[in-house]
Amino acid sequence: MRQDAAKALEELFSEAEKDGIDIYAISGYRSYDRQEYIFTSKVMERGIYVANQTSAKPGESEHQTGLAMDVSSPSVNFQLTQYYGHTREGKWLVENVPKHGFIIRYPEGKEYITGYNYEPWHIRYVGKNAAEFIMNENITLEEYLGKV
Ligand SMILES: [Zn+2]
User: Fold this and answer.
1) Where do the domains of the chain lie, and which CATH numbers do they carry?
2) Alpha helix locations (H) across the chain?
3) How far is Cα 38 from Cα 61, in angstroms, rounded to an integer?
4) Residue 58: which pLDDT band, with cuts at 50, 70 and 90?
5) pTM of the predicted model, to two decimals?
6) What is the CA(63)–ligand 1 centre distance, in A?
7) Among residues 17, 119, 132, 143, which one is catalytic?
8) What is the C-alpha to C-alpha distance for residues 100 and 64, in angstroms, rounded to an integer?
9) Is 119 a catalytic residue?
10) Cα 19 to ligand 1 centre (Å)
């Protein structure tokens, strides 16, 4: 991760610990090769349409920006699952990531804007002001940036 994002993530994790919330970083920066592998195996497994919706094409993943992180918890066996949004940890994230400069990047009900399925585990660093605005207004990064 990039340095400012990594520092913010550390602060987020230490606040979680204080609140008795067990969250772990699952994956951050992925190299191009790794991303290509993930995308290609999704295509072979599920077809190009599903692959496009659920995993970024090589070169497009936010994980390559060094600003995104997937997080999960023992309560869901460290899986990246939409059910995470219903867990105590997933709900804690929604409440607490903005003050550390993160957003839930692919929210539920905004798939038509982000082009991605709901990912309650994927947080993206945008800085504190933008994060609080985006999460309070219940909008996406695309809307915040005026791209839609
Ligand atoms: Zn992710």
Assistant:
1) 3-29+66-144 (3.30.1380.10)
2) 3-18, 32-46, 48-54, 88-96, 111-114, 128-137, 141-144
3) 11
4) low
5) 0.82
6) 6
7) 119
8) 20
9) yes
10) 24
